[in-house]
UniProtKB/TrEMBL annotation:
Keywords: Membrane, Transmembrane, Transmembrane helix, Transport. Belongs to the nucleobase:cation symporter-2 (NCS2) (TC 2.A.40) family. The chain crosses the membrane at residues 20-53, 88-109, 121-142, 154-173, 180-200, 233-250, 311-330, 342-364, 376-393. This is Uracil permease. It comes from Streptococcus parasanguinis (strain ATCC 15912 / DSM 6778 / CIP 104372 / LMG 14537). It is found in: Membrane.
Amino acid sequence: MNNVKYDVSDMPKPGLLVGLSFQHLFAMFGATVLVPILVGIDPAIALFSSGLGTLAHLTVTKYKIPAYMGSSFAYIAAMQMLMKTDGIAAVAQGAMAGGLVYLLVALIVKFAGNAWIDKVLPPIVVGPIIIVIGLSLASTAVSDATMIDGKYSGTSLLISMVTLFAVILFNMYGKKIIGVIPILLGLIVGYLFSLVLGLVTGQEIVHFASVASAKWFQIPSFDIPFVNYDFKLYPSAILTMAPIAFVTMTEHFGHVMVLNSLTGRDFFQDPGLDHTLTGDGLAQIIAGFFGAPPVTSYGENIGVMALNKIYSVYVIAGAAVIAVVMSFIGKVSALLNSIPTAVLGGISIALFGVIAASGLKILVENKINFDNKKNLLIASVILVSGIGGLVFQIGGLQITGVATSTILGIVLYQILPEPKVDEA
């Protein structure tokens, strides 16, 4: 390892520890609170659950892996649909079901090893699925960027484009920490531009009154089963969200591999893939229990570590504690809820596109041959069924396009024969 400043088990001095932890908080903040805002969930709950989930993950992995857990974008489409039909109770149940999938796979890995995973989720399946996750949200992003109350708005378009280009510029030209938090900085630019534009035009673009009236200390609006609502089983939510766990699992494997490279360790062996999966699953169950979006390990925070060469798990734990504390500051929650939809739309255009591009990257890096008929058919079916929103519905059971395309991709890979050499 080159130029390591603080290794995994090193603890910086208290003052520096706090500063470094805030840096990680800023890195994950924009994306973590964006997910609940897009879905219609109190962002404070997401902050709370991301911090608590991170501490749970650190504990399960024996404080050996510096990974931060933030809101997952993979579940957005499913959560938005469920919020419109069955509400937060169904979302919570689906999130916990996804966490149980992690625990089940962790149990299998513990006793059977992990060689089978590549056979179930090869790059030709994973790549198109990630593309689907990004592009299935494209219409939502554009709608948020251009519409107000169902009508086209030039003001919204202007705000969203200013926000989008701010994110692009910060990402392309930002130095050091600025280049790591382009989403947060773009959100701030879009918010400030909306305030100024509202003052100039006389429109109420930012509803700031709620921020002024909010309390400094406020308990997040948790939606806890058996406490906030009577228990009811939502099979459609389980069947919709549980399969998506296999998609976020691929992100998990990739993040662990990157951390292996950064730290010069093999986390697949120590503490073991079964522990890392269990940590992710437990964090997701915690998020679902409190009514927050499912969480997953964050590449943004890995980017911070790659930049500053500080891999301390204590810094990650510090960021988690700060996130939990911030979730109880009422004015923070009100400020987040006052962000104009157009600002979120501008961010979403960049963010969802990056998700789709990540799927393309997997295909390119693995040199997938599309002259191979099997590869071509698998990718085609996944892309069209997923982006087109192919839904399976039997009675009250409904499986969304993302989940359907995932299942189809896995099944096709297993049943389609490899083409002959002269056909490939």
